[in-house]
Amino acid sequence: MKQNGQLSEADITKAVIDSVMNVAPDAGPIGTDTHLAGNQAVLDSVGFVTLLVDLEGRLGSGVDLSTSYLEQDGADEASNPFRTVQSLVAHIQQLASKHRP
Amino acid sequence: MSTTHREALIVADFTAQGLAPFLSDSQSPSLKATLAPFDQVVPVLLDETLQCWASRPDVAVVWTRPDSAIKAFGRVINHESVDMDGLLAEVDDFASCLRAASARVSALFVPTWTWPAYDRGLGVLNLRPGVGAAYALMRMNIRLAEAVATDTAIHLLDAGRWVAQAGKAAANPKLWHLGKIAFGPEVFRQAATDIKAALRGISGQARKLVVLDLDDTLWGGVVGDMGWEGLNLGGHNPIGESFTTFQRALKRLTNRGVVLAIVSKNTEEIALEAIDRHPEMVLRRDDFAGWRINWQDKAQNIASLVAELKLGLDSVVFIDDNPAERARVREGLPQVLVPEWPLDKLLYEQTLAELTCFDTVTLSTEDRTRTRTYVSERERQGVRQSAQSIEEYLALLGLRVEVEALDGSNVLRAVQLLNKTNQMNLATRRFTEAQYLEWAASKTNQVLVFRVRDRFDDYGLTGLASLSVNGTEGHVSDFLLSCRVMGRGVEQTMLYALAEEGRALGLSRLIATYCPTPRNSPCRAFFDDGSAFARSDDGLQYVWDFPNLYVAPAHVDVHWAQNRIVPAGKS
Asked: What is the per-residue burial (b if ≥16 Cβ within 10 Å, else e) of B202-211?
């Protein structure tokens, strides 16, 4: 449920998980600790890119994950905000807060 | 065709691996997808020695962008002047490349060309002949469809429908720039659904029978409570109108070879009166192949009805508005497809239209008249009940069998029969049309097809038998008969025809080898008890020795078609 016009953490988490299942129906059970990038990722690079764009469509304007991803290129795995579902949710919340009026 | 794990090769000029997970999901059949080299479509189609063909994939999907596959289209979208004949000539060239590759697979799927919906092109001029991109795209797709129509291994799929279903998520320029991905996941999901539906149709798994409930399924209300006059059907209210629309959609199904039947908990007389008398009923009594209208368990009724219609439970779709009845049938008859049905009656027609279980790759005259065949069977049963003996009944049928050689005019129906007949089928071999024609063309092989009619109905081409000659022995490679005409002497007539062929060829014996499957025990029972062939000790071979004369059943009028003359090129 939106609170003060913003998506809640639960909403964002659901959007991320739904998006992963939409892009990779064969990925198996998805949870907050599911890896999205790196060696243990359930998605390949094509699936990951598709996930970002699919997620942008679900979250609406103001969350530009594609640009953020390009800016992160080269970042080490440990600090990569796209590493897991949980880290991506936190990153989305951070991006969304920057666009609050 | 193989019924084990299948492999699909994806050939594309964009990043198409998003299709792979949907091809390999649990929806049958599951396909393991491999990718041809990126954007090497024409070389891959033309060169069978490339590594991507080494694993001999069973299926290929060739998916291209219109501006990449057809260079002239790239000029169209640049608003340049383009000669339409030259553009269509490029389409013909592309079709030639597809035909070159189609022989390597059992099915080659080609999604039609689409263009991103966000691109308005020339707006109002987009459909102007010789000017607009939308016009050019339509002509390209129609030309492609016509150019590949005669190759039965190539199947054009309507990608425009997938794009429409996906809406704004169909294409996103971000996907293209980030990864050369032309479509969003929903388009790939729709594509995989249609590819799998087509493959099920090709392998004879299309559903053939829709069993329908009545109250609140075919009409609004409970006929036993309110009488037929009180039913909500037709008229000028949305619910009543939606039921007639749903009935029209069901009637359309019968024109593609699907048969309708009723299983309803009602008093039969009252329910049939509604079907006969309600002025807004679209479906009448003769639109149904059979019914079980009583107060018994629906699963048992369905099983009984399906047996009467000589179909398998895996041919059946059950539609009922009542979730409890649906659950009961799912539990009791797991082979029956029971789709979830919407509470909202205004969505019945759409839900029916979205089902993917009826897809076939051929549509014949026999398909279009299948319901009539079952109605005739009801009339035939009336004669049976009045006959004093089985011999009198058979004589009263007035059975006629016409024997033809396989040729271009009957091969479509013959291969359809070959691929979907299960019960009266000696060897259960499966072929594409091209494969069977190639087999039949061999000098040592003979294929006969049988058209059957009686005084009630013309069943059409319903039997097929083939011989493979090895020295002085004729091996019965195929022996199959539609269940609609089983048990009336046509089987013996087919053996008589094979025997006549064998005598003409100077053979010493005919040998039929039975290959058991879960479904073809009726064929074994026929050869054991009705064929008069001698059974081998292991029970799997049946032999007829010449010069013994095989006599056709007395009640069957046998005719030999003109094309049965031994074809040129065979000694």
From this structure: bbbbbbbbbb
Q: Are strands B509-513 and B541-545 parallel, antiparallel or unpaired?
A: antiparallel
With contact defined as beta carbons under 8 Å apart, do B511 and B541 qualify? yes
CATH of the domain at B325: 3.40.50.1000
Do B430 and B418 contact (CB within 8 A), yes or no? yes
Domain span at B505: 384-564
Q: Which residues of B touch A44 (CB under 8 A)?
A: 17
Cβ–Cβ contact A62 with B under 8 A: no
CA of A46: which chain B residue's CA is closest? B179
- ∠ at Cα B37 (B32, B41), nearest 5°? 100
For residue B173 the two structure tokens come to 């320029």
Among chain A residues, CA nearest to B186: A22
A50/B168 touch (CB, cutoff 8 Å), yes or no: no
pLDDT, tens digit, 9 for 90 and up, residues B482-513: 988 888 999 999 999 999 999 999 999 999 99
Question: How many C-beta atoms lie closer than 10 Å to residue B239's C-beta?
Answer: 16
Residue B372 in any domain: the answer is no
Residue B224 CA, chain-centre distance (Å), reads 37
> CB under 8 Å to B2, separation ≥6 — which residues?
B58
Q: Which residue in A23, A27, A46 is closest to B179 by CB distance? A: A46
Which among B202, B221, B236 is the end of a domain?
A: B202
Distance from CA of A82 to the nearest CA of B (A): 16
Q: pLDDT digits over B353-375, tens only?
A: 999 999 988 777 667 777 777 87
Residues of B in contact with A47 (CB under 8 A): 17-18, 21
Q: Classify B63 in phi/psi space as left (phi over 0), alpha (psi -120 to 50) or beta.
A: beta
3-state helix, strand, coil split of chain B in percent (to 5) is 45, 20, 35
Q: pTM for the full model?
A: 0.74
With b meaning 16 or more CB within 10 Å and e meaning fewer, what string describes B278-301? beebbbeeebbbbbbbeeeebbeb
* Structural domains in chain A plus CATH codes: 9-98 (1.10.1200.10)
Give whole-number Cα distances, B150 to B95, B99, B159, B210, in Å. 11, 10, 21, 31
Q: CA of A55: which chain B residue's CA is closest?
A: B169
- Compute the mean pLDDT over every residue in chain A, rounded to the nearest whole number: 86
Question: Is a pLDDT exceeding 80 seen at residue A76?
Answer: no
